Amino acid sequence: MPAQLHVVFGVSNLGSTSDTSTHGFLSMIRKLQLTKVHHPVELTYDGDGLRIEGDFNAAKRGKPSYTCFCIPLPPPKRADPLLLPIQNTNILRVCYNERLKMVEIHALIPMQHDKEDSLLELYKFMYSLSDNNEEEAKQFCKDLMHDVYKDMKPEKRLKVIVNPAGGQGKAKDIFEFGVKPVFEAANCEMDIQYTEHQGHALQIAKDLDINRYDAIVTVSGDGIIHEVINGFLQRPDARQAIKNVPLGLIPGGTSNSLSICLLDYVRGYDPVYSALQVIKGQNLALDLCSVTYADHRYFSFLSQNHGITAYADLATEHLRWMGDTRNIIGLMQQIFARQSYPVEVALQIEESNKERIKSKYRDALVHPVRPPLNELDGPVVDTIPPLSEPVPEDWTVINDDLVFFLTSKVPSVARDMLTHPCALPNDGLIDALFVRGHPSIAKQMEIFKKIEHGQHIDSPLVEYYKVKAFRFTPKAPAGKKAYTVIDGENAPNQPFQVQVHSRLGCVLSLYPTFKNSNI
Asked: According to the CATH classification, is domain 5-148 in 3.40.50.80?
């Protein structure tokens, strides 16, 4: 059967109105007739997705299961991957194979069509032409690729950094078996490098030829992301490096906070969906924070933490094999000991009213935008007073015992811990959260019980602010162990200050903001 290309003009409605003269638009519906083992197959593309009809054996074969007597059972029936059209976002590559004279389609298909956060599975479909009608097929593929990569660069050149120790040693397999096949299906060019020691990713980013790559992809937890950001910001062309080579994230560590904030608790841990985000994601500007100690300065993209929450992170390092559960164990130890830590905190507060904070957050989600990266040139310079000088008079100074002090640029600092539900990627502010005094065990338990859904911020014991900068001075007495954690890593338990630098960083994201916390 010859391949035939049909173009049909149709009206597609926008919204619920039937007034197509006002709310409609003309869209080209393209059709291509192909064959699969002498059976006719029709491809239909309507601008939003690709429907494949006539391929009745597209489903992958499931793996057989066995009874307790090792008797093989028939493999479970797999859902038809072509039940629904393949959406533009999920189409990786459509091309004409000159050697085989076939049309190739590489796509990621939801495993469960009826589940919004379904994981994805990589498929490759191949269909034959007849009578050498190649030009129609080539034009169909060209038109479709133009649409599915509109405003995006196909076949990206990727610098991939894999931390082989990440995720309890699983990061390498995550990349090789989950991510690399997806990048190959999208015909991405990969330059893969494995980290060999702490600080290696920082040096890679610092020395990177930024004109050779379209993105730098980390297969790791949050630690390698921290290194890459700081490597870029140590360059003389730091701002240009960040603009030229955005971050792509593949969750491959025990902590993947930024990934779950961009996607969600399910897909944020899925290497396949995250690979799709690298391929089809667009630049999302991120605020970064300068962290200044008396003798050094660096940048943070995630959080700054002191008190029982810092203890739960660092004092449980020996339990890292337990994943996020170790944080819960550490918290329980501190809560039942009713620990608190004396500190002095000076805050440059932008907003202190919780209801106004929540209202502005909801407004930002209703009207999401992708603001451009910071257009400033030259070094990234702090505008707040040096650590050796007093803070301005209009800053709020707190001298008290705090149960914990936790500031963050992301909503979730760990799985099922929606600590800062109103955090936004590029509002120029960092969300500060803390509890003063010595609350009872029951009251502390009530706070942490609500933290999974972000409802803890409604507690009168919880203080929640939007701030531009802060200075933190720990005052733990001699002999009392206290921890400070910045971006999940041990930091000096000494005075430091933080300033937000608006839209300084850049990450590839499928969405224009963090996932909705539903606060």
From this structure: no
